[in-house]
Amino acid sequence: MKCKKIKSNLLLYIDNELSDKSMKEIDLHLKQCEQCNKEFNKLSAVYKHLGNKTMIPENPFFYTRLRQKMENKLLKSHSVKKQLLAVLQPVTYVFLLGVGIYIGILIGSGGMNNNNISTSESQNPEYMQEYSSSLYLDEMKLETIESSFIAEDNENNEDTENK
Amino acid sequence: MQAINNKNQENEIIQKIIEGNENAFKLLVDQYQNMVLNICNSFLHNYDDSMDVAQEVFIKVYQNINKFRKDSSIKTWLYRIAVNKSLNFIRNKKKNTIFSSLDILFETEDNKRKKNIEAIDTEKTSDEKIIDDDNKSILLKAINTLPKKQKSAIVLNNYENLAYKEIAEIMEISVSEVGVLINRAKKKLYKKIIHHF
Fold first, then answer.
1. CB-CB neighbors (< 8 A) of A54 in chain B
2. How many other C-beta atoms lie within 10 A of the C-beta of residue A162?
């Protein structure tokens, strides 16, 4: 086997995961090749720590600390909700007030009248003619109440003179 | 203390926890705290961090117990949560180290003094131990650079001594995929370790 192939199989060699034939070949190569042997020593010095860990013993206060943490989290989430509510409440009120004012302005300016039919009808000459004639139904537009009384008075005078 | 020995007892305990029984939850924690703590330690190699993450694991269990599918065992579920929480912790820690590296620029006199004391302590230890610690940290750094799935597979196999079948169940993948992940992880580890020297 060439050095490159040996090196790529070194970890499998350390883990004893190669075939017997390959294991023997690498064994032999490491005895003969100084460079590969050096690399093997460095690698195994690091790799031997894989799987080495200090076992943590049981902690008698684990549950107590866990409960404490859970309660703290619960309190924190409650206080976050409260803070959020404290900010959101005035914002909602201001927003609703703004919407109310806007609607009020729209109603006042007549901007909310989207009666497209009347607009289109006002551009129709036949409709306008009919509309203007119907205006005569409202006598107040043609004659004020004072002139009407004067005219009536004049008529009465003329009648008495004729008699 | 009553122990959870079979599937029926396990289901009974879970049902009680869902109903809000505190004692049932305590029983579950007492039974599995050591296992969860040591799984976290396999990934984090730090007592305080492992303690923190183990607590987070049980908080998640408490909050999501009604989502637990009873077709797998509670042990497998705990393994799964512990692995995910540990990997997330490592990822977040990596992000934080970027910011904490900025703190070096504003290092206080107190910190400098602490570092000097630590340096003197280190001198007292034997050369062999220093080399051993160095090698260990090279390995841990190399493991931490592995992709999430490869890292989980190799840690569960080598630190938790789990069989491929158990790892497959925890990671919800096939046994052959576990083999592939471990082989790839070993090849990457080889490159990382050799690259270090």
1. 41
2. 6
* Rg (chain B; Cα; Å): 20
Domain ranges in chain B are 1-106, 126-197
Predicted ipTM of the assembly: 0.72
**In the structure, what pLDDT confidence band is assigned to residue A53 with cuts at 50, 70 and 90?**
confident
Report pLDDT digits (tens) over B53-106: 999 999 999 999 988 877 788 999 999 999 999 999 998 887 776 666 555 555
Mutate to test the interface with A, among B186, B191, B192 (most CBs of A within 10 A): B186
Cβ-based contacts of A49 with chain B (< 8 Å)? 132, 135-136, 139
Start-to-end C-alpha separation, chain A? 150
The CATH number of the domain covering residues in B1-106 = 1.10.1740.10
CA–CA dist A132, A141 (Å, integer): 11
Q: What single string gives the DSSP state of each residue in B153-187? A: HHHHHHTS---HHHHHHHHTS-HHHHHHHHHHHHH
Token digits for B143?
């493991």
Whether the per-residue pLDDT at B109 is higher than 80: the answer is no
**Domain assignments of chain A as residue spans, ordered by start:** 3-47, 68-112, 113-143
Q: Which of A46, A51, A59 sits opposite B193 (nearest CB)?
A: A46
Which of the following CATH numbers is that of domain B126-197: 1.10.10.10, 1.10.1530.10, 3.90.180.10, 3.30.70.1560?
A: 1.10.10.10
Cβ of A53 within 8 Å of Cβ of B187? The answer is: no
User: pTM, whole model, 2 decimals?
Assistant: 0.66
CB contact under 8 A, B26 and A63: yes
- Is the CB of residue B168 less than 8 Å from the CB of residue B175? yes
Q: What is the pLDDT of residue B86?
A: 94
Helices A34-47 & A20-32 angle (0-180, nearest 10) = 120
Q: Which two tokens stand for residue A125?
A: 């000459």
A80-135 pLDDT tens trace:
888 888 888 889 999 999 999 999 988 887 655 555 555 556 677 777 777 666 66
Q: Which of A18-22, A51-55, B134-138 has the lowest mean pLDDT?
A: A51-55
